[in-house]
Design a protein that fits this description.
There is one protein chain. By secondary structure, this protein is of the alpha+beta class. The chain is built from 15 helices and seven strands. A five-stranded mixed β-sheet has the order 5-4-3-6-7, with helices on both faces. The chain has a two-stranded antiparallel ribbon with strand order 1-2. The radius of gyration is 27 Å and the shape is globular. The N terminus is likely disordered.
Length: about 425
């Protein structure tokens, strides 16, 4: 960490001295005479130009009176560019790689490795509301709009018509306010207060929820050491984690919807087809859902090239599969379609840009485009399952090591995006 701090100071110093782009600033004493000559020449050219074009049609702009200050080193020639540029490149890369390794796990060749941070792991069926708890659910879901793994869970709730059955806390991504990780909790709702839920489950941040749920395991004063990830399903009566694995949560929700009396919904995981669905999940995860992340978090060209090849293969294959069937695993919508929907809504304006995930826009794939439109036409609630502008924008705002300038590009809302397919 000391090395990281030293390199960061060097990078800041060098970037402050030279900038990352050539400076237009000139040293007054050394260039005063030249400046007069240039000004005179430009004035003469401008006078000639006015005879044929107006000033408003000029391709160039006047140098602003107020602009960021620089030393102008790249224009002064000292230190020599042949030394300055390699040094800045080297220091920048080393600092960037340190930050990337702190963010996620890599192997020795720079490949992103998605670790399991599973907590809870209780696959037993969820209990239905009963008279003992006044008909209210004993569970609470913590979801974050930017997260695709949360989005698939929220999409399942929409398609299964489970809104209101299990309370949801929509997390806010704000790493600067979170004590750990990136999620903080909104202000408690009136329903949270009425439900007599432990304060640690409705205030603070997601790290606090994990700490509370592990209170019987941790030593006094000790805090949960794992990553505090969402989605997260908690049993508020026992104050324990059911699971934080999105696939498990979707399975539990589908089973819950099946057992609800007088409840109409689709079956996202039909009995007897579990193995087929699990194999499809693994297949698309390797090629696309995780493939884009492997592109974005690669710290070597080899790692990126391998991941990019998978994404290209996955897009071509998905387009071909959907040419012969309405949904990814047959004639009916399944959990695999919702998982892919969470990925595809982030592909065009997040993954292809900040992650450098290849393949172009989804509109270039006619059968994938038709599948998206079919999904939202058959299940209109999916359009409300994500705020696409916020979801895609979060990648640019929070992953600063991939977007040092923190500039967020144009991102349409989901209705505009679907209409353009």
């Amino acid at each position: 960490r000391d090395t990281f701090i030293v390199l960061l100071h060097i990078l800041v110093s060098l970037s402050g001295i030279s900038g990352f782009a050539p400076s237009l600033c000139l040293h007054p004493k050394a260039t005063h005479a030249k400046s007069n000559i240039v000004d005179t020449t430009l004035n003469a050219e401008n006078k000639d130009a006015t005879t044929s074009t107006s000033s408003s049609s000029s391709l160039y702009q006047d140098i602003p009176k107020k602009k960021p200050w620089t030393f102008g080193i790249l224009t002064s020639g000292f230190p020599p560019q042949q030394i300055l540029v390699p040094v800045v490149k080297f220091v920048t890369f080393q600092v960037w790689r340190l930050m990337m390794n702190e963010l996620v796990t890599h192997d020795e060749q720079g490949r992103f490795v998605r670790e399991s941070f599973q907590a809870g792991n209780d696959p037993s069926p969820l209990q239905l509301p009963n008279d003992s708890n006044d008909g209210h659910s004993r569970y609470k879901l913590y979801l974050g709009n930017p997260c695709p793994w949360c989005h698939r869970v929220k999409a399942a709730i929409a398609v299964l018509n489970l809104e209101g059955e299990i309370p949801i806390t929509m997390l806010i991504d704000d790493a600067e306010k979170a004590s750990k990780g990136g999620w903080i909790l909104p202000s408690p709702s009136a329903d949270d207060r009425k439900a007599n839920i432990a304060e640690e489950l409705i205030t603070g941040d997601l790290a606090g929820v994990y700490n509370y749920c592990y209170r019987d395991i941790l030593e006094e004063g000790e805090k949960y050491k794992g990553r505090c990830t969402a989605p997260l399903l908690v049993d508020t009566e026992t104050g324990t984690i059911v699971t934080n694995e999105s696939n498990e949560i979707m399975i539990l929700l589908n089973d819950y919807a099946r057992r609800l009396p007088d409840h109409e919904s689709v079956d996202l995981r039909p009995i007897g087809r579990e193995e087929e669905l699990d194999n499809a999940t693994k297949h698309w995860f390797d090629l696309l859902w995780n493939g884009s992340y492997k592109c974005g978090f690669a710290t070597s060209q080899l790692a990126y090239d391998e991941a990019a090849a998978d994404v290209l293969k996955g897009l071509a294959e998905m387009n071909e599969v959907l040419a012969s069937r309405p949904y990814l695993v047959g004639q009916d919508v399944s959990e695999v379609d919702l998982k892919s929907f969470a990925w595809v809504t982030r592909h065009d304006y997040a993954y292809t840009v900040i992650f450098k995930s290849p393949g172009g826009r989804i509109a270039q794939y006619p059968h994938i485009s038709a599948w998206v439109k079919r999904l939202v036409n058959d299940y209109p609630k999916l359009l409300e399952s994500v705020d696409m502008e916020d979801a895609c924008g979060s990648y640019y705002r929070q992953l600063f090591m991939l977007n040092f300038g923190r500039v967020v590009p144009y991102i349409p809302n989901i209705h505009e995006w679907v209409a353009g397919l």
